[in-house]
Design goal:
Number of domains: 3
Structural class: alpha/beta
Number of helices: 6
CATH class of the largest domain: Alpha Beta
CATH topology of the largest domain: Histidine-containing Protein, Chain: A
Largest sheet: 4 strands, mixed
CATH architecture of the largest domain: 2-Layer Sandwich
């Protein structure tokens, strides 16, 4: 597919998504790499725009340059955002009590702490990105080691084998001290995301380096 057609598909996908005001989002494409630019009124829309673009067939990569424009000066104080963020984390049953800490600077949330599973880190971000006044999120929460290298590798291989939607024959998995490196090829971004999700679900995984290529 040529870049012009792919660009139009991404634009159409953004326009079709009801949770995104795409009027101020620009799209350019070069060799299958999509660049998103412009501004949106909140972080949830910024996140949604990237996810929508990734779902478009034949997209090989994303360069996300969208900024969150909530006005200047911001009507939201950092200490208020921090209080609301802590309340959200405390109310989330998937996040361990006091397992994730929050720092806020100019609306940007930085998460720290230590949890057992990646889904717990993901659950924290899923709620926080919907808060008013949030301009970005950096997730520095880490995972506690839980299993040996052999156990981690075996769990990942079994997960990929039983996942009906993943074509894993061209995926190479390397494990060292809880760090998983993915190499090889997948046919589309959806498969790449599914492989990552399957790897993160394995006990003992602390870091995932995804070098998979979409071909």
């Amino acid at each position: 597919m040529n870049d012009r057609v792919l660009r139009q598909r991404v634009v159409d996908a953004l326009d079709w998504e009801p949770s995104i005001d795409s009027a101020h989002i620009g799209v350019s494409v070069e060799n299958g790499i999509v660049t998103l630019m412009g501004h949106v009124p909140n972080y949830a829309q910024k996140d949604a725009a990237e996810r929508v673009a990734r779902r478009v067939k034949d997209v090989r990569g994303i360069a996300e340059q969208i900024r969150v424009d909530i006005g200047s000066p911001s009507p939201y104080l950092d200490d208020d955002i921090a209080r609301r963020a802590v309340d959200v984390l405390d109310a989330n049953v998937l996040v361990p009590p006091k397992g994730v800490q929050v720092k806020v600077q100019q609306g940007w949330l930085t998460l720290s702490g230590e949890v057992h599973w990646d889904y717990q880190r993901t659950a924290a971000v899923a709620d926080l990105k919907k808060l008013r006044g949030v301009t970005g999120i950096t997730n520095n929460a880490t995972l506690k080691p839980r299993a040996s290298v052999i156990d981690v590798a075996r769990s990942i291989e079994e997960a990929l084998e039983r996942h009906a939607q993943i074509e894993a024959k061209n995926v190479l998995v390397k494990v060292q001290d809880g760090r998983v490196t993915l190499e090889g090829t997948v046919p589309n971004w959806a498969d790449r995301n599914l492989v990552e999700a399957a790897v993160w679900a394995a006990p003992g995984v602390r870091v995932v380096e995804d070098h998979l290529r979409v071909v």
